[in-house]
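Sample entry (396 residues):
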Amino acid sequence: MVGLQCIGVVNWNLKIMLQQYGTVVLFKRGEVMYTEKNYIMWLNSLMNINTDIKYTLIEKFGSAENLWMADRGEIADTKLLSGEKLEFFIRSRYKYDMEAELEKLYHSEAEFIIPGDKEFPMQLTAMNEPPMGLYVIGKIPDSSYPMVSIVGSRRISDYGATVGNKLSRELAEAGVTVVSGMAMGADAIAHKGAIEGGGKTIAVLGTGADVCYPAVNTNLYNEIKINGCVISEFPLGTKPYKANFPYRNRIIACLSRATVVIEANERSGSLITANKAIDNGRTVMAVPGNITSSLSKGCNSLIRKGCIPVTCTEDILEELGIKLTKKGLKNSEKDLIPLAKDEKMLYDCISYEPVSADELIEKLNMDAREVTCLLTMLELKGCIRRLSGQKVVRSL
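Predicted structure, serialized as tokens:
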């Protein structure tokens, strides 16, 4: 049985909150007792100490609580921490306010889960440098369904945006959970596509789970919490420090059986995710791109090195062992949504390659005002998407 530590008098509402988040209230009137999970939450907050060292310390002392109670000499004798890191570790036990952290959990509607909890993704327990715990807002989708990570450039091209939306939406329609990092560009498109496809999506953040970054994605952040979850190993309230994102990327890579890179230049953070996936025995796939585009260099390089090229959603499903033909996916929107004769004629001239309204007017020899009106109707029906430069593509 894990040992318990008293911390003092708290009000009844806080007692209820502490019970909800893994703390036992018992024995002495008005005193709160912490459980092992609470001490792991403290240890998890020490982000400048290697996770493997933390796990080794727990193993040596028998529990995170025993580590909290250990004196300086006992910790120094392990030779795992020394100098400034040892001093930082000792000070952290005086500075860390468990009660305040539990209040943050309560007010943000977050949950802190650790390996051994049934909600904790099993695929993260065997990865290199596994997280000690995860903060979750929302509900982690059933792990019996396959997960695919989709990543790519923040400054994604129209081509990349079209491909990303199509792949993520069709994967969701096939029952695949889409994982990404909620950044601008490819990440946001992947999450939106999964939601449009009626599926589940997971956003792995490089901030606290309660911090929406970038702020422009606030609406998307709220949708993801409803249609899946946001998760982070960083303590609640953590700001978007640059050093956090490579750590975030390893979780994106290891949650999924396959990682698909949509677009990436040669120094893209998406390649960090791809390399983490390879290091942990996951499959990496890449969308081939224009050889003259800098945004395609990373993907084309991955393919040249042996990663699987993605030309359609079925390529990914086949790699996952899901045998679905195009008929197994949701029917296209023109089969589901009735189109007028002129709408269908215009729709048939639009593909997944961006085309401008002027090109459509010339091709169909139609009045500009009529084409504009028809494009608006197709957009309202969800058949097409407008891109920059007054261009459009099929949305499904």
